[in-house]
Amino acid sequence: MKLLKSCIFIFWLSLFFLSGHVSGETTDKGTITVTDFRGKQLTLQRPVKRIVCLIESALSGLYMLNEEKRVVGVSRNVYEKSLFSYYGRMDERIRNKTIPSPGNWDFVNIESVLSLKPDLVINWAQQTESIAALEERGISVFGVFIQQKEDVYREMTALGKLTGSQARAEDLIKYTRNEILRFKERVGDIPPSRRPGVYYMWAQGNLETSGGSSTVNDLINLAGGRNVSAAIPEEHVAVNLERVIGWNPDVIVMWYNERKDPSDVIKDPQWQMIKAVKERRVHELPEIFLCDLWTLKFQYAVKMVSKWCHPELFKDINLEKEKEKMLRTLYGKKSLGD
Question: Among 192, 223, 188, which residue's Cα sits nearest to residue 317?
Fold first, then answer.
């Protein structure tokens, strides 16, 4: 009898520890831990279900992951002309303007965000006041600050974890890396002395550019160019015309600008002394959605700048076909309105 009781006791004791061990594994597997661009660690018990996304780079990533159903709030600029046509084709809610827009990267209506009952808010990491206000009210915030191309991959990896779509995030990152490598291999052996000097021009003004610590610098280097302002450490900086004349760039690349075209720069009498203008090597990137430097679509910008810098090396490249392939891979058929 004593032996039977002992066996029963050992059985139940073993079952207790076994159950506890299995429960712990389930909890560990269910817990999601990510670190945002502030260095803040977020721990969640399950993939987020309701996201208010106030920066377009992250929103684009969520649509790439096919997780747009989790989005309950977007940034205001999504409803602007240059972005609305694309997102409207991908999401009927945006097309019908039924997804609320409680702010954007530089302004957040806290009460409007709270009314959407989000599990997570995604915003620029530098929006410290609005982030603090949301966190004080118990809302998890993932802060983003993208400076270089590796930050794009980091953001995409985090979005995959937060939504339970890690495998797709990894696949899309791998695809992007391979596409960039495909172009980089053609220019990799070109020494710095033979790389064309490239001046990057932001839409805010002809004399606003990007220095060495920037996604723009990464873009130019990957394309086989040489950023003429690389010695400047700032990500976004204003320079004077004399400095640009001194750099005498071989190529000028313009960020998309609704108010100005390459022909305007070429006709500008102040820019006539510059080699890129003399040789009419002034180019403009297409609308922002197609080559956003803060998303996996920066691969398309790399392809365009590669061809502008080294037309002889990329004669066989059809940029229109490259664009279509990229959109189908990143977004699926929905991106083209199929």
Answer: 223
Task: Supply the pTM of this predicted model.
Answer: 0.87
Contacts of 107 (CB under 8 A, 6+ apart): none
Handedness of CA 127, 109, 59, 323 (dihedral sign): negative
Task: Look up tokens 């203008």; give the residue.
Answer: 277
Residues facing residue 80 across a β-bridge: none
Distance CA 98, CA 189 (A): 51
The DSSP secondary structure of 250-304, one letter per residue, reads SEEEEPP-TT--HHHHHH-GGGTTSHHHHTT-EEE---GGGS-TTSTTHHHHHHH
Residue range 129-145: mean pLDDT, rounded: 96
Q: Where are the alpha helices (DSSP H) in 140-261?
A: 149-163, 166-187, 215-222, 241-247
pLDDT of 29 > 90? The answer is no
Ordered domains of the chain (ranges, CATH):
29-164 (3.40.50.1980), 189-336 (3.40.50.1980)
Question: Which among 179, 151, 241 has a CA at the least distance from the CA of 205?
Answer: 241
Q: How many CB atoms lie within 10 A of CB 306?
A: 26
Q: What is the DSSP letter of 155?
A: H
Single out the residue of 291, 284, 243 nearest to residue 60, CA to CA.
291
Torsion of CA 164, 169, 65, 84, to 10 degrees: 140
Three-state DSSP class for residue 102: coil
Please give the structure tokens belonging to residue 316.
Answer: 């066989």
Spatial CB neighbours of 162, under 8 Å, sequence gap ≥ 6 = 32, 34, 44, 47, 48, 120, 142
For 218, counting Cβ atoms within 10 Å of its Cβ (0-12 exposed, 13-18 middle, 19+ buried), the class is buried
- What pLDDT is stored for residue 10 in this prediction? 41
CA distance 209 to 201: 5
